């Protein structure tokens, strides 16, 4: 997972390059940071693989125990884990695909075409980005109830199917890396707007789409307050809500709850590690460009 | 999260426009505008239905008394009046600010130091980034459960304290215990994220500036505060604003820690973990006071707006060469710095 950065090498010489001792100190502090960053995950594994009695033991047991599979089995017996996993996967995958499609399509239009009120419409995008989600929590729930979508996965997928952030991001990318000449060549061959989008622009967008995709996927996967509010049927919820319910109802059975937590965390970590290299670079780029 | 606003890019696009227009005008007349307008329409349709309408509706709702099922009863500004007299609401506001302060200040400081150290590091940068970022991508619910066990009365944190001969702390039962636990979770989750953002900003600083500082005999701390921090101001501003917006919306940590069965939550012992959004959720969705919840949403919005403006002024305040930054000025300035 080492995404070596080109610029670090030269600039790195400028600071902290003093003595050998300084460098060792820097490394120790950084490693200590890594330790703190990762420790809760290790601790999660320890708790999920022990018995509930282990948790109350003093001094605490610091190494994983042998009960991981038992505990995971008990999770499957207690809650519909695969059901909520399925719901979460549907929401995250469908939601991400819709975002990628609609955002890149809109970004293509904004970056490469002229149309009436373009500036005004783009300005509106800026403004919409400032509205905090909590403001519309109540009315959006009421809207969903009116639509008959309360309790349905539609409520999680449709409202977020196109978003301002993604359009900004893709438009920026399109302006910098989609040459007009290429589009003109396509026009000469008789391609219209959607054909140019699909055959010329979309393949070139791939790196930007990868970042937006992982970013959106993680967001949808981890969302908690909105599914908690809108999925009114406790039998049909996403993983986050199922896990919170498990914790509420069985919080004296630590090892059960911890096994559930572990099972809910692992899939996303895998997705993240697969895309981490590009993701982290683009995230940083996006923030500094703001 | 990360925003990509680059209105500074617009002028360049404008200059190119005439010649592109002349090429694309020829066939189709006005109908040529149809495909791009169709292409951008999904966002605006969704935004009208799920964005504008709810916001307008929430304003309307905040003047009504409504349990979500029966008839609405118009009460005018009374929801706001009740809210301003509601001691639990004020307690939740105070808690939110205390937690925000306890988490944001150490978090941004630690992130800055971490970014500085990472910048001076040549080896394993990629691995460090992944390790530091992982807390940010994992489920907050799961990690709150883990932290809940660490901070339990006989949990790991107190075991560690006893092992070095100290008394345990009521992490989840005393006022400052609760606020510290929630803040520690927030710090853990966001330090790495902000460090990576700062690191990106650091890497954009020309190397000569560091060399000049070294030639002048500046030590690491002087370099950090006299060279790095001033140059990083836009990035620090970004981090401060996003941290504030996130910090004022704390919900999951408190909700998961103190949720009990069907009654919802009171935010833990003494309601010390009750935050604004948690109270909003409790009132609207557990006690079915939708009008009250809507009014609370608007007050939260007002608070966030005020704090965002204060943040802007504080962090960009000493900038002499720019007038008071409106949003547009702010963005233009940043665009210019990035050479766009």
Automatic annotation (TrEMBL), chain A:
Cellular component per GO, a single term: plasma membrane
Family annotation (InterPro entries): MetI-like, MetI-like_sf
Recorded topology in the membrane: Multi-pass membrane protein
Keyword presence, Transmembrane helix: yes
SUPFAM superfamilies noted in UniProt: MetI-like
Family: Belongs to the binding-protein-dependent transport system permease family.
Protein name as annotated: Carbohydrate ABC transporter membrane protein 2, CUT1 family
From TrEMBL, chain B:
Organism superkingdom: Bacteria
Gene3D superfamilies: MetI-like (1.10.3720.10)
Key words of the record: Cell membrane, Membrane, Transmembrane, Transmembrane helix, Transport
GO CC annotation: plasma membrane
Main location class: membrane
Pfam families linked to this entry: BPD_transp_1
Subcellular locations according to the entry: Cell membrane
Record protein name field: Carbohydrate ABC transporter membrane protein
Annotated InterPro entries: ABC_transporter_permease (IPR051393), MetI-like (IPR000515), MetI-like_sf (IPR035906)
Source organism of this protein record: Streptomyces lincolnensis
Residue spans crossing the bilayer: 37-63, 99-118, 130-152, 186-205, 290-310
Low complexity bias spans: 1-12
């Amino acid at each position: 997972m080492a995404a070596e950065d080109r610029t670090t090498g030269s600039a790195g010489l400028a600071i902290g390059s003093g003595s050998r001792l300084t460098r060792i100190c820097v490394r120790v502090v950084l490693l200590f940071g890594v330790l703190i960053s990762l420790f809760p995950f290790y601790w999660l594994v320890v708790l999920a693989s022990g018995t509930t009695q282990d948790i109350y033991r003093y001094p605490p047991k610091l190494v994983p125990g042998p009960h991981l599979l038992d505990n995971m089995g008990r999770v499957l017996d207690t809650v519909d884990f695969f059901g909520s996993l399925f719901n979460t996967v549907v929401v995250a995958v469908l939601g991400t695909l819709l975002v990628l499609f609609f955002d890149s399509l809109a970004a293509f239009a904004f970056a490469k075409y002229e149309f009436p009120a373009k500036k005004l419409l783009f300005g509106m995008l800026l403004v919409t980005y400032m509205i905090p989600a909590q403001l519309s929590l109540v009315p959006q729930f009421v809207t969903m109830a009116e639509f008959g979508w309360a309790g349905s996965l539609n409520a999680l997928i449709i409202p977020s199917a196109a978003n301002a952030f993604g359009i900004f991001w893709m438009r920026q990318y399109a302006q910098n890396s989609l040459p007009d000449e290429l589009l003109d060549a396509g026009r000469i061959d008789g391609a219209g707007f959607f054909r140019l989008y699909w055959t010329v622009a979309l393949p070139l967008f791939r790196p930007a789409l990868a970042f937006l995709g992982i970013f959106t996927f993680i967001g949808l996967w981890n969302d908690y307050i909105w599914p908690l509010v809108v999925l009114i049927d406790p039998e049909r919820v996403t993983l986050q809500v199922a896990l919170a319910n498990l914790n509420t109802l069985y919080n004296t059975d630590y090892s059960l709850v911890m096994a559930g937590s572990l099972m809910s965390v692992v899939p996303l970590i895998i997705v993240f590690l697969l895309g981490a290299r590009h993701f982290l670079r683009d995230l940083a780029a996006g923030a500094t460009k703001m | 999260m990360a925003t990509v606003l680059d209105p500074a890019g617009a002028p360049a696009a404008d200059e190119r426009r005439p010649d592109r227009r002349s090429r694309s005008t020829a066939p189709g007349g006005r109908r040529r505008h149809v495909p791009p307008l169709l292409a951008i329409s999904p966002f605006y349709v969704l935004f009208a239905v799920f964005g504008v309408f709810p916001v307008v509706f929430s304003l309307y709702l905040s003047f009504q008394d409504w349990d979500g099922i029966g008839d609405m009863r118009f009460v005018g500004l009374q929801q706001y009046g009740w809210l301003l007299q509601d001691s639990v609401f004020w307690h939740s506001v105070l808690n939110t600010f205390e937690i925000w302060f306890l988490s944001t200040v150490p978090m941004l400081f630690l992130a800055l130091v971490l970014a500085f150290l990472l910048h001076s590091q040549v080896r394993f940068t990629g691995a460090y980034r992944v390790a530091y970022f992982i807390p940010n991508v994992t489920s907050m619910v799961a990690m709150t459960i883990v932290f809940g066990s660490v901070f339990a009365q006989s949990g790991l944190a107190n075991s560690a304290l006893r092992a070095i001969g100290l008394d345990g702390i009521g992490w989840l039962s005393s006022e400052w215990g609760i606020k510290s636990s929630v803040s520690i979770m927030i710090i853990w989750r966001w330090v790495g994220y902000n460090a990576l953002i700062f690191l990106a900003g650091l890497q954009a600083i020309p190397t000569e500036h560091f060399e000049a500082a070294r030639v002048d005999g500046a030590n690491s701390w002087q370099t950090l505060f006299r060279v790095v921090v001033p140059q990083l101001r836009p990035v620090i501003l970004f981090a401060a604003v996003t941290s504030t917006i996130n910090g004022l919306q704390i919900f999951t940590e408190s909700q998961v820690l103190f949720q009990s069965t069907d009654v919802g939550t009171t935010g833990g012992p003494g309601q010390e973990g009750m935050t604004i959004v948690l109270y909003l959720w409790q009132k609207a969705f557990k006690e079915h006071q939708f009008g009250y919840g809507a009014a609370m949403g608007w007050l939260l919005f007002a608070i966030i707006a005020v704090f965002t403006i204060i943040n802007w002024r504080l962090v960009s305040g000493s900038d002499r060469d720019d007038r008071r930054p409106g949003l547009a000025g702010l963005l233009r300035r940043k665009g210019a710095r990035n050479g766009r």
